[in-house]
Write a structure and sequence with these properties.
132 residues, mainly beta, 6-stranded mixed sheet, two-stranded antiparallel ribbon, 1 helix
């Protein structure tokens, strides 16, 4: 009986490794100055901290030119430094001078302009909002 249960567990494990689960979505990113193809996957939930002030960052227009803009700054709750967010968090309304802890999810969306997949962050819940 133990061998039968072990065989069933091993078969389930082996078959789950064959599952595609939408992992074929790729996009090119620059990592350490080199272009690399990376997988863009759905992430159902992760927590980030949003800084009370925006940062100056560069965004790409639909034509591919770079423009200077103000971007949210975020970090995962265990990180020390903030990273500018090139885009918005759908469903989230930012107010300056507040520090937020957010529960967000990442979904893979198709960019109609470039026909490439891109990650989109969507608000699940505002965990906390603290005045600075």
């Amino acid at each position: 009986m133990k061998k039968l249960v072990l065989a069933a567990v091993m078969t389930a494990f082996a078959l789950s490794g064959c599952s595609t689960m939408g992992m074929d979505n790729e996009r090119t990113m620059v990592v350490d100055g080199q272009p690399m193809n990376v997988k863009v996957v759905n992430i159902p939930s992760f927590k980030i901290e949003v800084a009370p002030l925006k940062a100056v960052c560069e965004l790409s227009t639909a034509e591919g030119t770079k423009v200077e803009a103000e971007c949210l700054q975020y970090r995962q709750t265990y990180q020390k430094n903030y990273t500018p967010l090139n885009g918005n968090i759908q469903g989230f309304t930012y107010e300056p001078n507040y520090r937020y802890i957010l529960d967000v999810r990442q979904e893979v969306m198709m960019d109609e302009n470039t026909n490439m997949t891109k990650p989109v962050w969507i608000l699940n819940e505002v965990v906390s909002k603290t005045a600075e």
